Amino acid sequence: MMLNEKQVIFVGNITQDTIITFEKDHHQHTPNGISSSQHHHIEQELNSDEDANSIHYQGYRKIVNKSLGGSVMFGCLAFQHYMKNIDNQMYYSNNQHFKIHPKILTKIGKHDVMILSQFFNGLEHAANEDDSITMVACESPIINKQFHKTFQPDLSEAKHLKRMKMFDMILVEEDQSSKLTQYELLYPPFDSLENASNSRSLNCRDRGSIFKQDESINLMIRELHQVRALLFVPVAAEFDHHFVNAFTNQVFKEIQSDFLVCTDIQGYLRKIDTESGQVSHNTIEYLEEVLETLSKIISVIKLDHDEAKKCIPNSSEMTPEECAYHIQKNYGFPIVTVTMGSSGCVCACEGENIQLSLPRLRSNSSTPIVKYFSSYKPVRVLDETGAGDTFLSCFVAELLVRNSTANTSNKLSFSSEQVFESVKLACSATSFRVEQRGLNGFSTRIQAQQRVNQQTVNM
């Protein structure tokens, strides 16, 4: 029985994040909490282009960490872990088994090769016979700045990095400057992680590579074979909706077979001041144009509740269910997911039978089916970064599993029940992500299913 290799491609920039948090310093006298006016003052300081390293809270010790991140990294690793040890369940036409490899399509600079190599060399990993890397839980190492200044990457180092299947499609540019997006995240000292997450300050110090439909991108597209899904996950407006449209159409022209096309609205929503790095939001008129263009090619779109309301006029009082219904009905996306963090998520799909084949044929006749899903309780909550990326990635992974085991054709069609069961497992997988810090905490499909079973019994 033959084993084929298929690809799931994550498109977007890798980030190098500076994460600033605070913990109580018991050696100092701590005032009674931090007032909202104090937090507003701190936020103004950060957004006025001052270095967050100069910011302090009385009675709290500041912790500064650097780590790699970005939706492509969180999504790719989440997908890889989720699909672990289930290859024998995956089959295609003519009863041929296949393995899906998640890969990152991005551009990096020469010094970024060192950053990525150092990061992964600093993690314990095991390479199996096909060179795919399995990550294990450990803290994300801090980048050594002095090593960064002196290291001169050569071709052999880039080749070594590309031996990891997730990186074998990266384009290393000759430019010495970094092409990673640099974000600075400041979490003020609040009593709960949820409050801290909602009040974080976000500054973009460098947008990294900007994607254009140039010859280098065209060359990368020609290297694509047996694609089962494209996930467009921008973090800093590194590409727009027109790029997504052109890229997808060119891939379809090259491979002439069906694949899922998915995206997260986050990167299109963000508007970045090129001088200060301050992150704001695009206008609703622009976002409506984005949704209209994306609806022609996107199979699955993910938004959180606040993002969804920013895309809909006069929506301040709309519920997640109403947002999902509106976006599905008005734009015709086959599947719309609206997430709400620890409060669960909502999924709207275009009817009982969902066809995701390309080219997309919009259906206005069906009434959207909308369903709410509660979240699954994690053992602990340490870090919510990458939770949305994990949800989308595992949702797509589960759709591909169910499509492969339900029929032996390459047509992408699902029942609403299959979609909703996939959402349930994605919610469960996401609950593992928040239990650890950094690029860790990813679950397998088996673990996600076990948590669904355990918590369903206890409900």
TrEMBL record:
UniProt xrefs under Pfam families: PfkB
Carbohydrate kinase PfkB domain segment(s): 288-440
Name under which the protein is recorded: Carbohydrate kinase PfkB domain-containing protein
Source organism of this protein record: Naegleria gruberi
